[in-house]
């Protein structure tokens, strides 16, 4: 009869992908009148069991198993329903699948087992359960990551400890050359870092940028991790592939907190990178860095060191139009220094069309380097500094 409901009007896989499991359950209860086999797969290779595992629908899972659905069926990514359940953190679904014959260590297209997916899914109880069920813990995925790399990346402290205790090497490299300790620092995970520092033999390792662990901690802007590394004797003045120290990096990031910490531990304020830049040069090219410039000067930063192009920090500030930086750095002697092009900071500003710097230079001379409100251009400078 027209308009009468029929199971034949529905694609159960589409219904399941939309989360309508009440309809799926009704169809499964009447499977004998519906032209459908429980292991039918969609264009992505997903069966009803895959969809159920992703949604965490236990009642439908039981019906499918009763109807002899295959628990190890693979989709196009070679994922079993157990992979999907673990990735989505569905503990009860994973336990049931294992009870009904799901294999623990099937590799998907990324060469990851369900245990890898469980770590990614963030269900720590499920991860521990899989380990108690003797899931393989020493495999690597296609990116040559081991479980310990993922455990660190996903901040699973307990798993990191378990893996180390059962013998997983905390010094093992990923395909991109990272060790767990570097990942912990990038994630600013102090607790995991403490675990790894006691067991790692790669404390002096550097990444592809020649960043030390201290560079990474500065990049992460993690004061607590920087303090721990410094307490463990890490080199304050180590250089990256551009010759930059952690202090250069802290200034580049315009992180006053990191700069203060490194200077407190007596970082060398006048070391130059491979282009001749000191941290003060770096600060001079960054607008809104006035406090950092002031701090560097208080720690005896040399204003007369020249880059490969003969520029002192005042040249840099003038060239980029860093008003606040220029004010902090200005003194009469430095204003006459010429670079390899024969330009003073003022003439460099002129060549860049920066008339504000030119006017400021004149008025700073008149006011003996003072940048109080007596300077006529002060109001204009305040407007510029807010931009």
SSE layout and pairing:
Elements: H1 12-17, H2 21-29, H3 48-55, H4 58-66, H5 81-87, H6 91-99, H7 114-121, H8 124-132, H9 147-153, H10 157-165, H11 180-186, H12 190-197, H13 213-219, H14 223-231, H15 246-252, H16 256-264, H17 279-284, H18 290-298, H19 313-320, H20 323-329, H21 345-351, H22 355-366, H23 378-386
In words, what does this structure look like?
With 387 residues, the protein is mainly α. Among the domains are: 1-136, Serine Threonine Protein Phosphatase 5, Tetratricopeptide repeat; 273-387, Ankyrin repeat-containing domain (Serine Threonine Protein Phosphatase 5, Tetratricopeptide repeat), CATH 1.25.40.20. 48% of the residues lie in helices and 0% in strands. The protein has 23 helices and no strands. The protein is elongated, with a radius of gyration of 31 Å. Residues 1-7 and 371-378 have low confidence and may be disordered.
Q: Classify the beta-strand content into a percent band.
A: under 5%
State the end-to-end distance: 72 Å
**Secondary-structure element order, N to C:** HHHHHHHHHHHHHHHHHHHHHHH
Named at the architecture level, the CATH assignment of the domain at 1-136 is Alpha Horseshoe
Biggest sheet details: none
What helical percentage do the residues reach?
40-55%
User: In terms of structural class, how would the helical and strand content be classed?
Assistant: mainly alpha
CATH fold-level label of the domain at 1-136:
Serine Threonine Protein Phosphatase 5, Tetratricopeptide repeat
Poorly predicted sequence stretches spanning 5 or more consecutive residues: 1-7, 371-378
The CATH fourth-level homologous superfamily of the domain at 1-136: Ankyrin repeat-containing domain
Per DSSP E runs of 2 or more residues, the count of β-strands stands at 0
Morphology call: elongated
**How many helical elements?**
23
Pfam families: Ank_2, Ank_4
InterPro entries: Ankyrin_rpt, Ankyrin_rpt-contain_sf
Keywords: ANK repeat, Repeat
ANK repeats: 44-76, 77-109, 176-208, 209-241, 242-274, 275-308
